[in-house]
Design a protein that fits this description.
Radius of gyration: 24 Å
Shape: globular
Largest sheet: 2 strands, antiparallel
Distance between the termini: 74 Å
Helix content: over 70%
Length: 556
């Protein structure tokens, strides 16, 4: 235990020092650097930063565990989260970049020429980002709590303090380059164990090719034990829940403010598209590996742990039992551990697997560092979104437009510090598993920003009254369904709280369209601006005609 603790803590401390050093070196000194990294991030590095921003604790820590426990039904997370990037890259990112604002609320406020819409969008951003950040800080508590064998309270607060420091200091500029480093660390930390397990179990070091064989063997074991087969569909929920969750995650991805703002950090529409392409490649490396990780982990547990005498279980089980995230109960009193007697939290599978598979102390430490990188990278982006919504969209654009740049930066930094501490306090007793909490954030984004942004970019008739109605109705419907499903046990077609976004999105779109149709059309210049977003940067739509920018400059 002493060697493992020394190696793991050394790796984590070294990565923490790296993040802090990068933040100090890339300190934001102007508001453009604080909010959009000066709009000078190369597409390939922005793709890495998007990948790190995206692959949160839910992806790194929770997703493989969710797929391991749910089998086929868990694939909705992988397909939804990945498919959403296609929505974002083709439907929204280039157009939003051409509009040239700092934040999503700023786009909505200016597109609809409404401070009320701007403030409402900022409030939605804060709610979504705060919910999402609870999952990330909860993940950091899992990692640090297990590493130091301390209460998750201290792990969570340590993560919050670190995030508050480098996000407050570096702003988007510092967070961007920190996320590039975090992506490299987390992807190496994720791939090494799954490659080692693949070679250990099948003799083939390429997990994407070998895990199909293990899935077939898992099916045989499930049949022997009388369990639902691992790859049988809809055994842990209805078909409608699968589809609703899939849509919620896809639409939520396209509406997440902390992801969209990453496309503002590049210089052109073309760079925004390439950022999305690079991000899909970098994200795919982890997402294509998660099902293999899940299958290998389940196989090792079933072969090496299930069926053992309870008093002779491996030493790693005691460490995780002490955290409260693993429970072993001899329900039938035979002294032998059955699969049904092993209650393992989805959130510890990735962290525990290197110990389960005896991959060595270095890999255990590397996975811990990767998990922290995943949690911290996303949390940093979320805190920037919360800060920009409050300091830029509400404080500067609405209440104090004459504020100096120094004053705006001070407010932005203080808002990050306060938001991080509050999120850390809530994360001490999280209301659900990491993937569940994150799914709520996606549901809220799909019910609010997905309708507002898609209609705002692609339907010029959408007006101020319509977007306000859509945001309010989408938010209320989504929140109501989450609470009704989780705490009231009330569902439609078996769709539980994590699929609430489909109801919010439909309600938000209908409210926006109906109210827009019943009220006056937007001014013509706003309609022209919307149409203009559909054309490349060197072209401008004006007065019903398309001009090359050089021609337009000559005429004006």
């Amino acid at each position: 235990m002493g060697t493992q603790f020394f190696v793991t803590s050394s790796i984590i401390i070294a990565t923490f020092a790296l993040y802090i050093g990068i933040a100090i070196y890339n300190k934001a000194r102007q508001t453009s650097e604080f909010y959009v990294a000066g709009r000078g991030v190369p597409a390939v590095f922005n793709g890495m930063a998007i990948g790190a921003d995206w692959m949160s604790a839910a992806s790194f820590i929770g997703m493989a565990g969710t797929v391991m426990m749910l089998g086929y039904d868990g694939l909705a997370y992988i397909m939804g989260w990945t498919g959403g990037y296609l929505f974002l890259t083709f439907l929204l990112a280039p157009q939003l970049r051409k509009y040239g604002r700092y934040t999503v609320p700023e786009f909505i406020g200016d597109r609809y020429n409404s401070h009320a819409a701007r403030v409402l969008a900022a409030v939605c951003t804060i709610i979504i980002s705060f919910t999402y950040s609870i999952g990330q800080l909860s993940g950091s508590g899992v990692v640090i709590g297990r590493l130091f064998e301390i209460d998750a309270f201290y792990g969570t607060m340590l993560g919050a303090i670190l995030i508050a420091f480098y996000a407050t200091f570096g702003g988007m500029k510092g967070v961007t380059w920190t996320q590039v480093a975090q992506y490299i660390i987390l992807i190496i930390a994720y791939l090494i164990p799954v490659i080692f397990m693949s070679f250990q179990i099948t003799g083939n070091p390429i997990p994407w090719l070998s895990y199909g064989e293990i899935v077939s063997k898992l099916g045989e074991i499930d049949r022997e034990l009388g369990l639902s087969e691992y790859f049988a569909p809809f055994t842990n929920g209805t078909k409608w829940q699968f589809l609703a969750l899939l849509f919620t995650l896809m639409a939520g991805t396209a509406g997440l403010p902390h992801v969209i703002v990453r496309f503002y950090t590049v210089s052109t529409m073309k760079a925004a598209r390439w950022s999305g392409a690079w991000a899909l490649l970098f994200i795919g490396l982890l997402y294509l590996s998660a099902p293999a990780y899940a299958a290998f982990s389940r196989f090792i547990l079933m072969k090496n742990v299930v069926g053992s005498k309870i008093e002779e279980l491996p030493a790693w089980t005691k460490s995780w039992v002490d955290t409260g995230m693993l429970k072993v109960a001899d329900a039938n009193g035979d002294g032998i551990l059955q699969w049904s007697e092993l209650m393992i939290s989805n959130d510890i599978v990735v962290m525990a697997t290197p110990e389960i598979a005896n991959l060595g102390v270095f890999v255990i430490g590397l996975v811990a560092a990767g998990a922290m990188a995943a949690a911290l990278s996303t949390a940093g982006g979320l805190m920037i979104s919360i800060s920009s919504s409050f300091a830029h969209d509400i404080y500067y654009r609405v209440f104090k437009p004459n504020a100096t740049e120094a004053n705006r930066l001070t407010v932005a930094r203080w808002s990050i510090a306060v938001a991080t501490i509050l999120a850390g306090l809530v994360a001490l007793d999280p209301p659900g598993a990491i993937t569940q909490i994150v799914a709520w954030a996606f549901a809220l984004a799909s019910g609010t920003f997905f309708p507002a942004l898609v209609l705002g970019v692609w339907w010029k008739r959408s007006n101020t009254q319509g977007v306000i109605a859509g945001l309010l109705v989408g938010l209320i419907v989504t929140l109501s369904y989450i609470f009704a499903a989780k705490y009231g046990g009330w569902t439609i077609l078996g769709i539980i709280d994590t699929g609430a976004g489909i109801f919010g999105a439909v309600a938000g779109i209908l409210a926006n369209v109906i109210v827009s149709k019943l009220t006056a059309a937007p001014p013509q210049h706003l309609q022209d601006e919307v149409v203009n977003l559909r054309y490349p940067e060197h072209m401008t739509y004006k007065n019903g005609e398309i001009f090359l920018n050089e021609e337009l400059n000559k005429t004006t």
